Amino acid sequence: MVIKIAKMNKEEKFLLINEIFTPSSPIENKEFFSGRTKQYDEIWETINEKGQHAIMYGQRGAGKTSLANMCLHMFENLMSIKVTCNRNDTFESIWERALKKISFVHAENSIGYNPSEKINVHPIEVPEIQFLTPTEIEQILIRINEHFLFIFDEFDIIQNKRVRAKMADMLKLFSDSMHQITVLIIGIAESVEHLIGEHPSIERCTKQIELPLMNVSESKEIIENNLNLISLKIESNILEQIIEFASGFPNYIHLLCKYAAKEAITNDQKVITKQHFNQAVLKSIENSDYSIKNSYALATKGISAQNQFANVLLACALANTDNNNTFDSMDVLNKYNNITGKDHKKESINYNLGMLCKKERAEILKKAGKSKKTRYKFKKPLLKAFVKLKQHVGMIK
């Protein structure tokens, strides 16, 4: 993709930046997608494995829907169909929407001295929804020779156990008798069991794919590749700061890069500098999700508690985490003492962490584990990045 940005006016450049950096919506254009090579390869291996299906899970904001969108375009000789689930969906309704997206193109010649080719599009016939059982779906699809990938995104929003059980039955049926069908189920979860429930019958035919937060290499790839599309460079230390502040969340990388790029273009600069980054931080906080801003405000409310809880949250954001994104109180205490320059005791930090788990402090944290092995995590993971941005604002004012 070649973009002659030098020939554009500022308004056109801003419009292009809005296409390249999309913090508020998933990526749809494959030209603007970077990273996730491992997960992409795992999905491709699943498609090519006879009778296998995939369940992809991860925390909110990791970029699951963007990867799902890429699956619609990046696999050759494969018809891909994506359905976004909603909380009122049933097993029948999601499969009805999926099947109604299938259509076949048929060309036929008209009769006469100058016959022309007529293109007809034929949708697949779908029976009434109440009769749409796994067996009925099998009978519909068994007549199709095409290789299909069915993607069910945001499956976690469906809490009905019956839906999950019937989907498990569907996967087992496809695995046993319909090898031209691959199903990819995607949702927010800490494990496959949290997403689709415990169904031993499908363990053999499902591949578990975890989508973690973006690592440093992937984050760097997003920044450099996308800035290159608009002929912008970035100072190395600023690139590192964006990666650190974004904390692995693609939307915060997009948010910071979007406003930093606009600042550079506004000032007719070709390199993003500290000045542009500082302005981008301010605008990123302003344009962060309302629920994130509101939770932070509730957690740090009160004149006397303002610095105390803000610093505790910053210590939590900086604390080392395990594979489940949890951290322990001792690591928070060490970070808190470094931030404040004081020697606080364990009892003090435990009290503060306990308060941040309560409704009056927006339940900004939640506990994991029990008694002496209690660990903590952000209830809204995106708050980790927001807290770091708020801390930076205090440094530049």
Structural description of this entry:
The protein has 397 residues and is of the alpha/beta class. The protein has three domains: 5-23 and 215-286, Helicase, Ruva Protein, domain 3 (Orthogonal Bundle), CATH 1.10.8; 36-210, P-loop containing nucleotide triphosphate hydrolases (Rossmann fold, 3-Layer(aba) Sandwich), CATH 3.40.50; 290-396, Orthogonal Bundle (Arc Repressor Mutant, subunit A), CATH 1.10.10. The chain is 47% helix and 15% strand. The protein is built from 16 helices and twelve strands. It has helices at 10-20, 37-48, 64-71, 91-100, 134-141, 161-177, 192-196, 216-229, 236-246, 250-266, 274-286, 290-299, 306-318, 329-340, 346-355, 383-396; strands at residues 53-58, 79-84, 103-109, 117-123, 148-153, 181-188, 206-210, 233-234, 271-272, 327-328, 365-368, 375-378. The strands form four sheets. It has a five-stranded parallel beta sheet with strand order 2-5-6-1-7, with helices on both faces. Strands 10-12-11 form a three-stranded antiparallel beta sheet. A two-stranded antiparallel sheet has the order 3-4. Strand 11 and strand 12 (375-378) form a beta hairpin. It starts with 9 loop residues before the first helix and ends with a helix.
